[in-house]
Design a protein that fits this description.
This protein is an alpha+beta fold. The chain folds into two domains: about 30 residues, no CATH class; about 375 residues, 4-Layer Sandwich (Chorismate synthase, AroC fold). It is about 25% helix and about 25% strand. The protein has a five-stranded antiparallel β-sheet, covered by helices on one side. It has a five-stranded antiparallel β-sheet with strand order 13-12-14-20-15. α1 packs across α3 and α3 packs across α8. The longest helix is centred in the C-terminal third of the chain and has 27 residues. The radius of gyration is 23 Å and the shape is globular. The relative contact order is 0.15.
């Protein structure tokens, strides 16, 4: 999104005495709230504003989607789910404003809004003056010279409501086209790691406990660890693993727009993220080539497969049809009830003990956020791939895998 215009005459620059020259041409681009090229999502709203939501452009017409399907995803990320999440109570009811009629998309922009109801802006009075350490308070002031103090504004995790709502639409598109499944779970809280069979875990396994870890023994230890820091007014971090099953082959682009690069950008755009790995990740740096290479073979259906999956489902920036496996690291929540040294907006050193309602650990609610961002990336890549590579017949295309010709047969 961009708009253009000209400043006529000589006008004083806001906030200083500098003059703007006559007929200076301005180009204003949407700044940081839109993701995607063909499947484009813009999120809007602040944590303590009237509401939050998204506008999705580029969704193909005739895709079945309902508010109930979107609500199912929003219910997984909403606050107040358990003792280890923020106590803020929000129903987070999705309302589709446009782009869908009788449960079917029109091909026009889809607008979805969720109204905010349980704001307690008075909890942020101290934070209107003092910056929370490691939060976006200071950097928003550095950039904009103004910010929404209550709830953190756009830096709040409530911004991700729009992402999750849009992700529900993207998931449905991927399911209809390729029977693609996207599942994430908490694989680590602090130093407690899980042992999960990545090929066989299910959504029911993930949702079987409040921390969203399919390993029940590890899950209880994670819950205990989160409760321990919560009772001290502290917070802790963790990791989320996401697995994509039955991803179409060939999604992504070479060089700058590699699929893993798009996934990394999407994951690191989520609040509190500090790390990203795909496949072997940093562990691969310690291997030799013969250990790391994924050898090919032909399976019973004539498909080209790999015997191992250290590539994490992506080779050369393109999906290879194996499970895409990524891991995302989340830092401890910045807003804590422990007194910390900081500075004020006026440049005075002070101490702050933050109030408000916050997650002692973000990873249980980050699971649907990670899934949604993966879905947005893949939906966008799917549309780009089809537009470039699937319009002309593939019968004479080079390659040993006959299933590639048929993977979009229903389109």
């Amino acid at each position: 999104m961009q708009s253009t215009g000209r400043l006529q005459g000589r006008q004083a620059h806001a906030g200083c005495g500098r003059q703007v020259s006559r007929n200076l041409r301005l180009i204003v681009r949407a700044a940081g709230s839109t993701y995607g090229t063909n499947f484009r999502v813009t999120t809007f709203g602040e944590s303590h504003g009237k509401g939050v939501g998204c506008v999705i452009d580029g969704v193909p017409p005739r895709l079945p989607i309902t508010e109930d399907e979107i609500q199912l995803e929003l219910d997984r990320r909403k606050p107040g789910q358990s003792i280890i999440t923020t106590p803020r109570k929000e129903d987070d009811i999705a309302e589709i404003l446009s782009g869908v009629v009788d449960g079917v998309t029109l091909g026009t922009p889809i607008a979805i809004v969720v109204r905010n109801k349980d704001q307690k802006s008075q909890d942020y009075s101290e934070m209107s003056v003092a910056y929370r350490p490691s939060h976006a308070d200071a950097t928003y002031d550095f950039k904009y010279g103004i910010r929404a103090v209550a709830g953190g504004g756009r830096s709040s995790a409530r911004e991700t409501i729009g992402r999750v709502a849009a992700g529900a639409v993207a998931k449905k598109l991927l399911k209809v086209i390729g029977d693609t499944e996207i599942l994430a779970f908490v694989n680590k809280v602090r130093d407690i790691e899980s042992n999960v069979d990545l090929a066989n875990f299910t959504m029911a396994d993930v949702e079987s406990n409040i921390v969203r870890c399919p390993d029940q023994e590890a899950a209880q230890k994670m819950i205990d660890a989160i409760n321990e820091v919560r009772t001290r007014g502290e917070s802790c971090g963790g990791e989320v693993t996401c697995v994509v099953r039955r991803c179409p082959k060939g999604l992504g682009s070479p060089v700058f727009d590699k699929l893993e690069a798009e996934l990394a950008k999407a994951m690191l755009s989520l609040p509190a993220t500090k790390g990203f790995e795909i496949g072997s990740g940093f562990r691969g740096a310690a291997m030799v080539g013969s250990e790391h290479n994924d050898e090919f073979y032909i399976d019973e259906q004539g498909r080209v497969r790999t015997r191992t999956n250290r590539s994490g489902g992506v080779q050369g920036g393109l999906s290879n049809g194996e499970d895409i496996v990524i891991r995302v690291a989340f830092k401890p929540t910045s807003t804590i009830g422990i007194k910390q040294r900081t500075v004020t907006r006026e440049g005075q050193e002070t101490e702050l003990r933050a109030r408000g309602r916050h997650d002692p650990c973000v990873v249980p609610r980050a699971v649907p956020m990670v899934e949604s961002m993966v879905a947005l990336v893949l939906a966008d890549q799917l549309l780009q791939h089809y537009a470039q590579c699937e319009l002309l017949p593939r019968e004479d295309a080079v390659g040993p895998d006959p299933t590639v010709v048929k993977q979009f047969a229903r389109v």
